[in-house]
Amino acid sequence: MKQLPVTAFELKLEIPIAAPPARVWQALVGESAAWWPRSFLSADTKGMVIEPKVGGRVFDDRGGGEGVMWYWVIGVERPNWILCSGFYGPPYGGPGTSYLRLALTAKGKNETLLEVTDASFGHLAGCDNETGWREIFGKNFASYVSAANKPPVKRRKR
User: Fold this and answer.
1) What count of Cα atoms within 13 Å lies in the side-chain half-sphere of residue 116?
2) Cα gap 59→129, rounded to integer Å
3) pLDDT per residue over 40-67, tens digit each?
4) Strands in 43-95 per DSSP E
């Protein structure tokens, strides 16, 4: 029997997004298949799904009832935050438990601060959650929402 060390961490990231909170919330919970990086999904996955209701799921959807469940939604306050609890195990790391909170704060008419808090415990050796969350939310999500929020470029007639 192999004994695994148990550790815990709390990771907090602040990600500025150039869009109002209502737009950020809609993209977060309603458009996740469009911005969730494919590199974090299996090849046959249709996309990530986030169900913004207590008892909702956060899962990669392979269709036909197949996929991987990452989190259960245990709290929601629209459009301010969503709190999730999940488990991960081989081959995805762990075994471990994660509590993930995604919170939105208005910082101006057209800017929102996304606060990502991941509190995890378990066998976490080799888990690089900070790099993963920065790619998912800091790179993909923030770029997706900011680009979608820009007004169309007016072209001059020749």
Assistant:
1) 21
2) 17
3) 887 788 999 999 999 999 999 999 999 9
4) 47-50, 57-63, 66-77, 81-88
